[in-house]
Each structure stands twice: as C-alpha cells, then as structure tokens.
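User: You have something folded?
Assistant:
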Amino acid sequence: MFLSPKYDEFVKEMFRNGIVRRYFVGDILKIPQKEIRSVGLRDPFLRKFFHRQKQGILDVKMELNDSRKINVELQMKLIHHWDKRQLFYLSKLYTEELFAGEDYEQLKKCVGISILDFNLTDRSRYHSVYRLRDEDGYEFTDAMEIHVIELKKKLTGEGEVDDWIRFFNVKTEEDLEMIRTRNPGILEAIRELKRMSMSNPVRLWNEAHLKEVRDRRAREAYVREEGKAEGLTEGEQRLSELIRRLIEDGRLEDVSLAAEDTAVRKRLYREYGIK
C-alpha cells in the first residue's frame, strides 16, 4: 500500500526526522544550512489561559536555534475563514510564553508555513510570503510571517521549494521514483515515506483513519436525515452535527457552551446527557 505524503499523520511522523526538519525549514525560509544549528520539535498544544479561551492545536511546532517559532500545517480542503484561523494560531504562538511583568523583547519571531492542497488565490505564484507592511510596502515588523505553499498550482521553477511540492504531490511509487533531487532533506523524506508505506502498523493506522472518516460521514448523513424527519431547520441540523463532532473529540466543555443558547439544547441534553 502506497502512503500519500499528504496524509497528515505521515507529515507529523516525517518531521520527527531531524534531517527532514532542518532542510525543509532551511529551504522554505531561505536559511543557509550552515546557519542552522538545530530545529527542535515542541509541544503541539498552545496554552489556554482562560476558561472559555479557544485551545490551539498545531500540526507540527518547531523552534530554530535563534528561538524563532515555526508552525507547519497541511490543509487538504479550504475551510471557512481560513485566513482568520491562521492569524489566530500564529498570534497565540507569538504570545504564549510572555508572562505578566515580562518585557515585550521576550517575544520571538513566529513563522507559519501552510501547505495547502487547494488554490487560495487565483495568482500563478505557488509560494507566497506575507508580513505586516504599509500601503507603500514599508515593513512595520517581521515578527510574524506566513508562508503559503499551494500544491495545486503549476510549477515554473527548479528550486528547493519546487522539489518539496513535487514530493508532496506524488501519488504512486512511480511518481516517487521520478523525483530527481540531491536535496538531503527530500531524499530522507522519500526514505521515510517508503519505510512507512511498507510498515504494517502504519498501514493499519491509515486504514483505521479512513474508516473513521467514512463512519463520521455516515453519522452526519444520519443526523441530516433525522433532522429532516423531525422538522429541524438546516441551521439546527448543522449545529447538531457540530456538537456531535465536539462530543466525539472529547470537548464536552465546548459542547455545553455551544448548547446554552441554542433552540435545540433540550434535544441535545436528552440525546447526549449534557447539562
């Protein structure tokens, strides 16, 4: 079974490899390898300071030797308010370690790298870098930086970023063999992909993940049909689906808050026992 490089669990596992981390970050951020002493993995959870504050969970969270913090995420489908979601996570990453009374100089530069399997813009550019600038292009600060890599767009170059996009876009073992590169990071990523594709536990892991996705879709379809039978509005049906997902993820606190001011709270309490 060939494992897709776009499989989120593979991405997390791949970045456990220090060589892959080092070269990927250096290639995307254009940092010479001789200037990189280390690229360490960090806890993917962002701290939550208040009871009702939204918890942040990043796909892969790294830190460079100069203390720059980096979040790498793979996003397969365009989600509503993706831009605001990205700023939310990057802002939390930027402020998470500043305690009361500490100087602002303690804040470290944060970089978000988003690998998107869809077109975010209609431009031909497939690697975009966003910072805070004024209308004349004068940079206010480089403290927050967002790199967007759009995998669906046509490649026009032969650089390191192009090679990483080719790697993420492979669909078969034949495609993998067609990649011609001397980049140590990509070669190591290819070895990791081959190893994990042949690994029986990972194959079972992937199959279990796909089964969970199919089961969730089936449950959502059931909720929609049940809602229609009970005369629920489309908005109430969507809310019911959302709450069901939150329950499955173990986020009961969020479910309780979501249900407090909804027209279907009594039904949800009756179904799920949430009070």
Q: What stands out?
A: The chain is about 45% helix and 15% strand. The two ends are 45 Å apart (CA to CA). Strands lie at 39-41, 45-46, 56-57, 60-64, 69-75, 110-116, 127-133, 139-150.
